[in-house]
Amino acid sequence: MKALFATLFCFALGGCLGYHIGPVKPYYLRDVHTLAVPTFKNRTLVPRIEVLVTDTVIKQLQQDGTYQITNGDKADATLTGEISRITRAPARSVRGNVLATTEFSLWLVVKYSLTGRDGKQLVAPNDAIGTTTFFVSSDVTTDERQALPLATEDLAGRLVTQISEGW
Question: Closest Cα partner for 152 from 125, 131, 133?
């Protein structure tokens, strides 16, 4: 009877082998514990969007907890980014009038790279895309401006997942 309990106990503990609590970084980023995130570059015509995107990415990194954010001279790696494109496309038209749009899709594209303290690329340059949809009231530009933070949050979540989990 004791042997049966001992065997069951060993199998119960054996099922947890390989699991651990805490961040699960990709192997190639095992030595990176702190990140510097300078303000992203803005290659679009939308003014001051770089501050919104950079702040949202930093907040998402802090919420994820895999890396600690610090300034450039103390960081193990630097995450640089460039906002390359913001695209708006019609998603739904008015019933009976296909030329009038009631809903738009919004895409925000950021090209980013992660470089080590020595300037060596740790992660190949990659893209992260954030999306959202928004309905149009009377002013499309204002409605798009109000939808940008939602697309930015989606983008930040995807970017941080790519860096902290490797996919």
Answer: 131
Average of per-residue pLDDT values in the chain: 87
* Cα–Cα distance for residue pair 65/68, rounded to 1 Å: 7
* Encoded tokens for 62: 């802090």
Domains of the chain: residue spans and CATH: 24-165 (3.30.160.150)
pLDDT in tens, 12-33: 665 555 555 555 677 778 889 9
Answer for the pair 166, 32: CB distance below 8 angstroms, yes or no.
no
Strands 121-135 and 41-42: unpaired
Phi, psi torsion values for 158, nearest 5 degrees: -70, -40
Predicted structure pTM score: 0.82
